[in-house]
Amino acid sequence: MRKLLFLLLLLLLTGCTKRESSDNDKPYTIDPVDGDVIVVYADGYEAETFAVLAEEIELRSLLCRTDDILAVDMAGNRILRFNYEGELIEAIGSTGNGEGEFLNPTGLGEYGGKLYLLDAGNLRIVVLNHEFSIEKLISLQELGIHSLGGRYEGFAVLDEDTIFITSSYENTAFLLKNQNEVVTLEENFCGVCAVGNENAYIAQTLVTTGAYKGNAGKVFYAEYDGKKGLIKNQLPYFNTPLDLIISGEDMYVLNGYYGSLELCALNGDYKETIYKFLRTIEDRIDLVCFAMDSDGNFYVYDNYNHVIQKVYKIE
How high is the pLDDT of residue 130? Predict the structure, then answer.
């Protein structure tokens, strides 16, 4: 009887210890049984397939507008236009270097009723109106950027005179000022950028040391200051940020390392995980980019399974 009481007490103490450990080790702890990551989940989010894409499509950027969702298809050299039922309703552009033609487009931004497309293979930014007519071509090669087109290009438009570009080929973060001057913000840089809250934010995916070698544990998160440049903060947990969204005082991160969509503060501090796509070590996903609509729904592109997933809050 005494042995039984002792065992019950030991089990109770062990259970309490595990719960305390999980709380104290936030944001992540490791399950000792299966090695999975234990995360802090937000309440009431689910995911469903929004659109199934052809295997030859390879998206690099998503943008939610009032009546449609735009997707940059790097492999097809075009912009795809979806309605909010997930139907492909239009494809804009074709392959080439002429007007209305693109080559390895990677990024898409919006400001003042205009669209800004990073036409990486042609080393230019294409400015379009909302009916997709071209208004201007900005040559990046003439301004000193000589290589773009990799997987980890970043692109964000703060306003028409303040545009951020990251080149995984040149390992550099650039600022395009007044559409006619390129300023180097950070060298040995490979990462992503976003705008919101009237400011720009950059997160480093990998510190490169030549030949794409590096240590992902040394990533930093930075806020842009017009006078001081990038004000850096070390990211507080092991993260591979694939894409960022800034909304008010919140930052949403598409985390490639954990295969998850996460909510962070504007200083980069982790708050909670909205949704985790990678749930077991047998899962196969390749998250690339995401967007958020005005209702707070997220649209996440998975290149491995060729789908756009919609993550939404259950009412």
Answer: 83
